[in-house]
TrEMBL record:
Name of the featured protein: ABC transporter-like protein
Gene3D superfamilies, per the entry: P-loop containing nucleotide triphosphate hydrolases
Protein family per UniProt: Belongs to the ABC transporter superfamily. Macrolide exporter (TC 3.A.1.122) family.
SUPFAM superfamilies in the record: P-loop containing nucleoside triphosphate hydrolases
GO molecular function annotation: ATP binding; ATP hydrolysis activity; transmembrane transporter activity
Keywords: ATP-binding, Nucleotide-binding, Transport
UniProt-listed PROSITE patterns: ABC_TRANSPORTER_1, ABC_TRANSPORTER_2
Transmembrane segments: none
Keyword Transport tagged: yes
Transport found in the keyword field: yes
């Protein structure tokens, strides 16, 4: 009944004769609709875990079951398929196509899903309206502010109705005011039933999440419900 079931996973990197245990033993269960902040110092294994969660990488040991699918031993192609269907990514650097409009950026994932152009544009417009950018659909990324670019990226992440949103330092390139706006948007998305996993260095940003997971040296050192959030799902 967990959306994400991670059981005793490890990930090691081999550099020359040296083995780096980026993840030693991590177990983590996440239910549909949770909003989790993943924190921890640099080098603690956050990116490694996010890459595995996002089906960009597989563990060296242990099991990862996502939405009932065992993705632990999948091939690159199988992983790509699961990724397109199950995961919406939001990045620190937005990762938008610079020559494409907001609408085209948001509609892009629907091309792979096989929708007609008309259907893609309709859905992308609706998604941009949902993030408050209905009046910016024909703007290219360099004609948008940082906060607006991240809104476009969030709309793109949501367009395929993924089962999880993975946000890696989504406010890392934004000023404080804009960061708060983007976190407000993440809260709205969560309130609609979406599952969000957010990596952040900033305590203030993590406080928007309902659950906080802290990593250190490839292990989870702490995992608790955020006491600052009153409503519990
Ligand atoms: P964080 O995201 O918390 O900063 P990472 O997951 O990036 O941590 O890194 C965890 C450990 O794994 C670090 O010691 C890092 O140097 C190492 N590591 C991460 N990615 C690689 C890689 N591709 N090759 C070799 N070592 C890596
Ligand atoms: P926000 O308050 O949403 O962060 P800004 O104050 O940065 O927005 O920008 C105000 C307006 O200026 C926005 O509507 C945006 O479309 C426009 N804008 C911002 N940066 C640029 C740019 N580099 N080129 C063209 N228009 C821009």
């Amino acid at each position: 009944h967990f959306l994400i079931q991670i059981d005793d996973i490890g990930r090691e990197y081999i550099i020359g004769t040296e083995k780096i245990h980026a993840l030693k033993s991590v177990s983590l269960n996440i239910k549909k609709g949770e909003f989790v902040a993943l924190m921890g110092p640099s080098g603690s294994g956050k990116s490694t875990l996010m890459n595995i969660l996002g089906c960009l990488d597989t563990p060296s040991k242990g099991q990862y079951i996502l939405n009932g699918i065992n993705v632990s031993d999948m091939s690159e192609n199988e992983l790509a398929e699961v990724r397109n269907k199950e995961i919406g990514f939001v990045f620190q650097t937005f990762n938008l196509l610079p020559k494409s409009t907001a609408l085209e950026n948001v509609a892009l994932p629907l091309i792979y899903a096989g929708y007609s152009k008309k259907k893609r544009d309709e859905q992308a417009l609706k998604a941009l309206e949902d993030v408050g950018l209905g009046n910016r659909v024909d703007h290219k990324p360099n004609e948008l502010s940082g906060g607006q670019r991240q809104r476009v990226a969030v709309a793109r992440a949501l367009i395929n109705a993924p089962s999880i949103i993975l946000a890696d330092e989504p406010t890392g390139n934004l000023d404080t005011k804009t960061s708060i706006e983007i976190m407000g948007l993440m809260e709205n998305i969560h309130a609609k039933g979406n599952t969000i996993i957010l990596v952040t260095h900033e305590e203030d940003i993590a406080q928007h999440a309902h659950r906080i997971v802290r990593m250190r040296d490839g292990l989870i050192e702490d995992d608790y419900q955020n006491p600052q959030i009153k409503s519990v799902i």
